[in-house]
Write a sequence for this structure.
């Protein structure tokens, strides 16, 4: 069926009760049709995938197929489990697009809401790459001369996405639809947003940066980001750190689209100082709780998760762990400093022989590295009925890595003699793979293991939002994070104070220079939580999940409508 056969009228609506916090008395403009593009549409890479895929149902319920997600067609010739092609969906438009040499596949994104997804082949545009970049320089002053790595690939996809929007708009919407929005995510889609801004000015453009390319580079290069943020010149630092082209497209897109947005106040400060542009609207990242087990399933799944975690640890270390063992973890992208993995390891090191710690702790590091394969010796033990009393060689890691001698987590454990000795109160286990249910050791997905944890720790230095702590509290698992994460800052604002362990989320104050204090705070929190009574633990777990309820999309979607209104009004004034 054709998804664009719908009635169109100019929509002015009064804000529902949920939106009163926007403090807007005016009626707002809402979109009749939304295009949204990202490299992570039907392509699970990182946090942006979570943003889009959890929010999709909320918009799909409202717009009824009047929203199209556009992603890169990088699965050609392979089965994409996230995309189900439908050759009858938008068939007449597909034929029209093909006549214009625009090669797309149309189907459904296999996520809640099953929205329409268009995957576009961007490879043909590499042949005219230099012409595209020249025009971009002439129109918007974007410097693509210093491009390298993934810049070209992302830019050609972004250009192709812009062509998709232009083509579909001219075919199906131009004569019938007044309020159309194009939202582009991250610097990778900036080129397309600027293309639409110039070639289809009737469409309101929104650009969302989830983390500035230069801010991430400053932090990743061990330079102090926060204390000197006011003094950094973004363009100068981009030259120094060799990210000129990414910074240029990001900066110019932020300045020229109808509405510039980011995901947290902490990142908005970066944008103000490094892009010389504050966000017009802050779009905080929500989630849907439909992936959290219901009450009837929860206890069973938690018991299964704890049993599996203890089983793998016992086979690796050659010892048994009772259910009273304390299970903690960190997870996310493998950025040793930015994600606070370094301070997590330091806190565990300081806890190894902590006399005040009254329980054995199994601490997992669940960050995908350059994994080679699951350990055969560990698999054999897990399949055997024998009881083992000696650890395996290298009792630190569940999967072999391609370069065991060049890994930051393993290097840290070797440097500080963290070999999981019997007398160590904390045993550290590195899980360097994607927990997708097929890893060969756990064979359970990340969420099915997360539910078994007693506590999670995300000591981030650079974290624009922070889905991992939000997911943790949604699963009733209290967590520790920092005030340098968007999530941590939001929790403090929600509570009206710095979050403490008893609140379900402890927000540790982190600066450019207080790493040792943060490690001590984490060590002390582990020790303190180990002393909690079952009644205290239950109270903390309830408070953790209560915090997550405030971050549901039904509460955060209001800010998207504010951004839509802002962009649509800007576009209308431009066309007047």
């Amino acid at each position: 069926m054709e998804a664009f056969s719908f009635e169109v009228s100019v929509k002015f609506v009064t804000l529902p009760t949920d939106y009163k916090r926007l403090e807007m008395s005016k009626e707002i403009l809402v979109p009749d049709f939304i295009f949204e593009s990202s490299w992570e549409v039907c392509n699970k890479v990182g946090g942006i995938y979570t943003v889009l895929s959890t929010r999709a149902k909320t918009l799909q319920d409202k717009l009824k197929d009047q929203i199209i997600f556009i992603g890169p067609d990088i699965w050609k010739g392979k089965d994409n489990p996230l995309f189900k092609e439908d050759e009858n969906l938008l068939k007449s438009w597909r034929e029209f697009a093909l006549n214009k040499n625009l090669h797309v596949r149309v189907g459904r994104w296999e996520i809640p809401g099953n929205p329409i997804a268009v995957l576009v082949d961007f490879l043909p545009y590499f042949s005219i790459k230099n012409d595209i970049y020249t025009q971009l320089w002439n129109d918007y002053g974007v410097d693509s001369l210093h491009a390298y790595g993934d810049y070209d690939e992302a830019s050609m996809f972004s250009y192709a996405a812009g062509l998709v929007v232009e083509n579909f708009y001219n075919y199906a919407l131009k004569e019938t639809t007044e309020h159309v929005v194009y939202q582009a995510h991250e610097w990778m889609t900036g080129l397309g947003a600027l293309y639409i801004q110039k070639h289809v000015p009737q469409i309101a453009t929104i650009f969302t940066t989830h983390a500035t390319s230069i801010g991430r580079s400053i932090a990743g290069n061990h330079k102090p980001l926060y204390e000197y943020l006011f003094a950094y010149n973004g363009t100068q630092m981009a030259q120094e750190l060799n990210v000129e082209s990414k910074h240029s497209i990001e900066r110019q897109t932020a300045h020229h689209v109808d509405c510039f947005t980011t995901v947290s106040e902490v990142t908005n400060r970066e944008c103000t100082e490094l892009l010389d542009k504050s966000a017009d609207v802050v779009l905080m990242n929500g989630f849907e709780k439909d992936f959290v087990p219901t009450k009837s399933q929860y206890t069973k799944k938690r018991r299964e998760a704890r049993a599996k975690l203890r089983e793998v640890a016992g086979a690796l270390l050659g010892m048994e762990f009772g259910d009273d063992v304390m299970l903690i973890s960190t997870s996310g992208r493998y950025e040793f400093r930015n994600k606070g993995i370094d301070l997590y390891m330091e806190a565990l090191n300081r806890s190894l022989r902590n006399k005040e710690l009254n329980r054995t702790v199994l601490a997992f590091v669940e960050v995908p590295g350059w994994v080679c394969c699951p350990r055969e010796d560990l698999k054999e033990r897990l399949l055997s009925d024998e009881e083992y009393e000696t650890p395996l060689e290298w009792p630190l890691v569940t999967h072999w890595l391609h370069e065991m001698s060049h890994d930051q987590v393993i290097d840290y454990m070797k440097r500080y003699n963290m070999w999981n000795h019997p007398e160590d109160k904390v045993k550290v286990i590195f899980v360097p793979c994607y927990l997708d249910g097929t890893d060969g050791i756990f064979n359970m997905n990340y969420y099915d293991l997360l539910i078994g944890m007693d506590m999670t720790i995300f000591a981030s230095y650079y974290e624009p939002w922070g889905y991992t702590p939000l997911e943790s509290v949604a699963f009733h698992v209290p967590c520790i994070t920092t005030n340098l994460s968007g999530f941590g800052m939001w929790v403090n604002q929600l509570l009206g104070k710095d979050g403490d362990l008893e609140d379900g989320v402890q927000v540790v104050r982190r600066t450019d220079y207080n790493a040792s204090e943060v490690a001590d705070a984490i060590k002390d929190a582990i020790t303190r939580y180990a002393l909690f009574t079952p009644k205290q633990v239950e109270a903390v777990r309830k408070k953790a999940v209560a915090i997550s309820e405030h971050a549901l999309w039904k509460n955060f979607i209001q800010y998207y409508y504010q951004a839509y209104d802002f962009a649509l009004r800007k576009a209308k004034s431009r066309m007047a």
